[in-house]
Specification:
Elements: E1 13-14, H1 16-23, E2 38-40, E3 45-47, E4 81-83, E5 85-94, H2 95-99, H3 106-131, E6 142-144, H4 159-174, E7 180-182, H5 185-191, H6 195-200, H7 211-218, E8 222-224, E9 229-232, E10 240-243, E11 249-252, E12 266-270, E13 278-285, E14 290-303, E15 315-319
Length: 323
């Protein structure tokens, strides 16, 4: 009978199988690369082109016979920079654990999925902290709802009018309508019963307002409903859990194709590992009678659709959309 043995003789080995498991880990209930598309970069730190408005400036384009065409400058290079910080976590898989399972690959897979989940959750939390800060948006691109203006007030609020107004605000700055809404579950589940939305579909066959139907009502191409939870507290003690994305609603312009010269609400600048955005490596530590499995990702989250003060204009945020 063939005996499975861990790879390595003390050296670190990028494990192709475990890397594939990590890259294939389901990201259900997360926003992730949907809101901040990944842009591969060749260097860990560098400058990048911020969304520029030079393309809207008219130029003198008349050319007389025999003369040289008027030469114009390219888009201005932003002074902003990125730094793709490495984020890594590792977990031991002991010989005892491996000997006590039916399938020898299960501990490696389970360990890979756990460190992957925590790396991705760390990125999701950093993303939420970034985009939920109203101070990161240009003047007029954020609104904190309260009282009767909150969408949980079915009598007085009008979420459709509010979102359409936000869309017009973004369009007036980038001349493109935002095409993505981040609608947290705690807001989405309330809007499903909002009379203003129900009135719009009263003659439709669908009795339940889905995210696809909401996208039609709001006039936004895509709605993503993050419902992932996050815990706080110390290991071994009582844990407090809540929705990571809370009650803030974000609309944004996300391009169909990511690139350093393509306008967008935000990008994740990823300094990859040989063509992969994240990798899993594994090595043996005989004194511990364990294999160590590590997941790593190097990235920086940046809002790139900004005005000349560095504040976001390619997006809009509703703070505290519901009570």
């Amino acid at each position: 009978m063939a005996v499975w043995s861990p790879t390595g003789t003390g050296g670190v080995h990028v494990d192709e199988v475990l890397t594939n498991i990590s890259l294939g880990w389901p990201q259900l209930g997360l926003v992730g690369e949907v809101l901040f598309p990944a842009v591969p970069v060749a260097k860990q730190s560098n400058k990048y082109n911020v969304f520029g408005r030079e393309g809207w400036l008219p130029e003198q384009d008349y050319r007389a016979p025999g003369t040289v065409a008027n030469e114009i400058p390219g888009l201005k290079l932003s002074k902003d920079t990125y730094y793709a910080q490495e984020h890594s976590l590792q977990i031991p898989v002991t010989d005892e654990e491996r000997e006590n399972v039916d399938s020898p690959l299960a501990p490696d897979r389970d360990g890979t999925e756990l460190v992957t989940a925590k790396i991705i959750m760390g990125r999701e939390k950093a993303m939420y902290n970034f985009v939920s800060t109203a101070a990161n948006y240009a003047s007029g691109h954020s609104l904190t709802l309260s009282g009767t203006s909150q969408w949980s007030d079915f009598t007085n609020s009008d979420p459709i009018a509010a979102v359409r107004g936000a869309i017009r605000t973004v369009h007036s700055k980038i001349f493109m309508e935002p095409n993505l809404m981040v609608l947290p579950y705690s807001v989405y589940s309330i809007l499903q019963d909002h009379p203003k939305l129900l009135a719009r579909i009263q003659y439709a066959q669908k009795a339940l307002i889905t995210s696809d139907l909401m996208s039609e009502l709001f006039g936004i191409e895509r709605i993503i409903v993050p419902g992932v939870g996050i815990g706080s507290g110390n290991p071994g003690q009582t844990m407090t859990v809540s929705y990571l994305w809370g009650k803030d609603v974000i609309i944004a312009w996300v391009p169909p194709r990511a690139g350093q010269k393509i306008p967008a609400f935000g990008y994740e600048f990823v300094w990859g590992y040989g063509g992969r955005n994240q990798v899993v490596d594994r090595w043996r530590e005989d004194p511990r009678k364990s294999d160590l499995i590590r997941c790593s990702r190097r990235y920086d989250l940046k809002m790139v659709g900004v005005d000349n003060t560095g504040l976001a204009v390619a997006g809009y945020i509703f703070k505290a959309a519901v009570a």
